[in-house]
Amino acid sequence: MGAAQFRQVFLQPLQSNWSSQFPPPQGRWCSHLQCKGDAHREGTDLVCRRVFKLLSGTDSYSDPFCRAAARGDFFSVSHSNDDILSCVYKWISDSPALVVARSAPEETVTSSFASFIHAVRPEHLSKIVRHRSKRMILDSIGVGLVGSTTHVFDIALKYCLELYSSVAVSNVYGKPGMKLSPTLAAFTNGVATHSMDFDDTWHPATHPSGAVLPALLAASQMLPPNSKPNGLDFLLAFNVGLEVQGRLMHFSTEAHNIPKRFHPPSVVGTMGSAAATAKLLSLSMTQCTHALGIAASLAGAPMANAATQAKPLHIGNATRLGFEAALLAARGMEANPFILDDISGCSGFSAFYSIYQPRPLSTPSEHHEFLLEKQDIAFKRFPAHLGMHWVVDAALSVRNLFINYAGSFSPSLIRTIVLKIPVSKYINRPFPNSEHEARHSFQFNACTALLDGEVGLSSFTESSIHRQELRELLHKVVVEHPEDNVANFDKMYGEVAVLLKSGDVLTGKCDTFYGHWRKPLSRESLLKKFRSNASHVLPEEKVETIISMVDNLENLSDSSHLACSL
Amino acid sequence: MWAKTITGNFANVIHGLNKNHLTDMVIHRSKRMILDTFGVGLLGTSTEVCQKVKQYSKIYSSDISSTIWGHFDFRLPPLYAAFVNGVAVHSMDFDDTWHPATHPSGAVLPAVMALSEAFPQKKKISGLDLLLAFNVGIEVQGRLLRFSSEARNIPKRFHPPTVVGTMGSAAACAKLLALNQMKCKNTLAIAASYAGAPLANAATQTKPLHIGNAAKHGLEAACLASQGLQGNNQILDMESGIGAFYTDYNPQTLPNLQSYPWLLDQQDVAIKRFPAHLGTHWVADAASSVRRKLVENSDISLILDKIEKVIVKVPEVKYVNRPSPNSEHEARHSFQFVACSALLDGSMSIQSFASESIHRPALQELLCKTQLVHPSDNKPSFESLYCEVTVVLWDGNAISDRCNTFYGHWRKPLTKQDLEKKFQFNASEVLPAEAIEGIIETVYNLEKVEDCSVLNMFLSGQSARVFPEKLHFTHSNS
């Protein structure tokens, strides 16, 4: 939506009677702002000017309506889905003058629910509600009691008893001596893998390894000594998990682009984990079918939790819940055997897509061509969303040009920084406030690369995110979405243009960053990344052991040794 | 049969792939991925989010445990107690149904009951605390169901308890944990990442898992939020939040807390009389009265041969349209099966779904004569649907009856006696009489119960005589 439309849609309805539009929290916020108005006039005006500039595209800050709108109205519409709006919102909340605004409750549907849950008291329960709910409680208990005689209950119970009584057999990454039950170990290690968004990315977009590996490691430790999978079994199961994810990603053309509704690892990752563990546990074909069916019932997390701490949970849960699905299937639990097929009126796996065309996998004969054969993976060089890697490489080349031009990098010479990037809302964040938001911000990564000449682990600490120089640079960023730059990891590019006050323009473009599947990391770079990562928690000797175990994985006699060394 | 479906084909490939299929390239690339993932994971162990989940996961190696209903001999960690008891509640599809359609209690009650046992020793959860948390969980489900007009009708894509039930369980647990407003918001956000299971698993053993998982994952979301884990703070507002589960999402804020208008005040639930999909209850009542007209006092087997066909007018609900169900779970989701069973037996019961009942020849024969008709005025909504059963005889006569509101529907609620009768019958399968009476009395006096752990004791099968001091109400006027 363009600025003009934005103004029309969101601001004009508020113009006529904007004071009555405010529910109490905004009203409070507005009057608060008015009281503080004098003290913060300068800051408030600054914000208004920025907002106005954004809306009108000019610097002539005169329209009183825009001033009013800029002061208050954004909060009443802040739950809209508009890019510009969130940009304005961030702009405002970023301003020191409006710190009061940040602490005021935002009237969103979500917050109204949270307030309700938090604030509702027993006195609020009416007589009828108590009466009806007691009937429900009694009935629910009775139904549950009789249900405890069913077959499906027996399976669920046996599963829990076997796994959760006191069987803590599986290792937790970086915590020698700590053991958890297998599925919780998978969960924890899955969260660890995606905690910084540092794990691999495939095309079509998903993070395949983190959804599969922790479950396989935990499962290999769970299996009894006489049936431990060897390294090659392990490698096969891993590839089954990958293959299933890749094939499922090809069922929807939607999935080819960066997603909007469901986070892919939570959808295909759960299925991949179920397939991989089903393979490692040597389930029968019927059990494999049911494992996929059960896994579908555990799949799917909305995108909105991207750039929050809940996103790493998606990988943790994909690997854990897929594993649970396979364990339940192994105990005879049954699901819909057509879960991947397109059944109208009663959705299976298609529920997660609006376009869905399932295609069969070729039944393995002598040869099977794995997708990994045709399509390699992208490894990240720094812990952030994959899209950031293009922008960072482009920004680094601009920085070099800058240094050649001016002798050193001096932000004061810069008027505007233009980022030419694809449209993808959840990684377009003008002013990230947390580590997780920073990992999902084109703007942040470009500015950090310009400022520091590199992006690394330390770029995402609190102090780095909030330093003044960076914030100043962020204010100079303007985002453009060229039509030919599509939100697709196979096609996208990153372009950074720095407009100098002198009128000169410095431009850098990256079509393929180092680490992308078209330009894979060298063995040296990969080992360097691994050593640097692992040495944070493990002694050097162990780090080297892991490297050689993975190198010789097909010759490992018991794959649980790998899990034990983590 | 397998290879003809995509699903069977995938299973076939997963099962059939062997080590010889791995190429050097695939092995090489996958080893690089494995190594990289290890490094990334090892590094990730030091992150804040990872600390929180580790802390959370450790709960399960501690001594905290919760009651498994009907089992005196063992207990499970709260999360899995919620799961197992939730599966039990929905295992026969015998639990309550609300409007718009969901099974509200099963997602909430096992979670709050399990959580009530997970607090540090000293903390007592009163009956009123429990009632409030339960109602918060029910209310949140009802409000969320009103965010989409799609949700008004019987669903097609996601099974509602997996979407709103997970959120309801999370809300109820957040309430019981007395989380602050910010943590309540995070609870909802985290729960959304666990929500949503496709409807295709209806009529399979996996459907009961949906309720068990809703209870379990809502509890988990609240526990993670209480550890400080943060999610998107506008999860209910965004198309890419809870909106992801609907095509016509239109969220609304809740009413003011002053004289709060509970949905349960306006809209009661339906309580089932036999363990099957709610839609089949209309069918059972219509078919039972057709049978009464048909046979009066004689034996139905004498006139079976005279039946040419059975016409059942119901709304179009694909997953409850099953002409020849093969399993207990399919039978519970078959209009046809319930119509024929009620015609044969005069009523439905738990026994109707036993394997020998499903496969008896008389029933199979009748099923072959049964056809569904979907009149255009018969909408797939539990508020407005009806059922008309017509038995056409070879001699040209036709006997029919129609049910607009079955007994147990919110417009025609079960009497207190019948509700208790249902409970006593259900509970007597696994509990002694004293525990059963103890549960009835405790639930009826729930707002006066000082410590609701007594309820868990009864549920495990212990009787009040063992713990007379536990059965203590603040007022003794009952």
From TrEMBL, chain B:
<keyword id="KW-0496">Mitochondrion</keyword>
<dbReference type="InterPro" id="IPR045336">
    <property type="entry name" value="MmgE_PrpD_N"/>
</dbReference>
<dbReference type="GO" id="GO:0047613">
    <property type="term" value="F:aconitate decarboxylase activity"/>
</dbReference>
<dbReference type="GO" id="GO:0072573">
    <property type="term" value="P:tolerance induction to lipopolysaccharide"/>
</dbReference>
<dbReference type="GO" id="GO:0002760">
    <property type="term" value="P:positive regulation of antimicrobial humoral response"/>
</dbReference>
<comment type="similarity">
    <text>Belongs to the PrpD family.</text>
</comment>
<dbReference type="Pfam" id="PF19305">
    <property type="entry name" value="MmgE_PrpD_C"/>
</dbReference>
<dbReference type="GO" id="GO:0006954">
    <property type="term" value="P:inflammatory response"/>
</dbReference>
<feature type="domain" description="MmgE/PrpD C-terminal">
    <location>
        <begin position="274"/>
        <end position="443"/>
    </location>
</feature>
<keyword id="KW-0395">Inflammatory response</keyword>
<feature type="domain" description="MmgE/PrpD N-terminal">
    <location>
        <begin position="9"/>
        <end position="251"/>
    </location>
</feature>
<keyword id="KW-0929">Antimicrobial</keyword>
<dbReference type="InterPro" id="IPR042188">
    <property type="entry name" value="MmgE/PrpD_sf_2"/>
</dbReference>
<dbReference type="InterPro" id="IPR036148">
    <property type="entry name" value="MmgE/PrpD_sf"/>
</dbReference>
<dbReference type="GO" id="GO:0042803">
    <property type="term" value="F:protein homodimerization activity"/>
</dbReference>
<keyword id="KW-0456">Lyase</keyword>
<protein>
    <recommendedName>
        <fullName>Cis-aconitate decarboxylase</fullName>
        <ecNumber>4.1.1.6</ecNumber>
    </recommendedName>
</protein>
<comment type="function">
    <text>Cis-aconitate decarboxylase that catalyzes production of itaconate and is involved in the inhibition of the inflammatory response. Acts as a negative regulator of the Toll-like receptors (TLRs)-mediated inflammatory innate response by stimulating the tumor necrosis factor alpha-induced protein TNFAIP3 expression via reactive oxygen species (ROS) in LPS-tolerized macrophages.</text>
</comment>
<dbReference type="InterPro" id="IPR045337">
    <property type="entry name" value="MmgE_PrpD_C"/>
</dbReference>
<dbReference type="Pfam" id="PF03972">
    <property type="entry name" value="MmgE_PrpD_N"/>
</dbReference>
<dbReference type="InterPro" id="IPR042183">
    <property type="entry name" value="MmgE/PrpD_sf_1"/>
</dbReference>
<dbReference type="GO" id="GO:0045087">
    <property type="term" value="P:innate immune response"/>
</dbReference>
<keyword id="KW-0391">Immunity</keyword>
<dbReference type="GO" id="GO:0005739">
    <property type="term" value="C:mitochondrion"/>
</dbReference>
<comment type="subunit">
    <text>Homodimer.</text>
</comment>
<keyword id="KW-0399">Innate immunity</keyword>
<dbReference type="InterPro" id="IPR005656">
    <property type="entry name" value="MmgE_PrpD"/>
</dbReference>
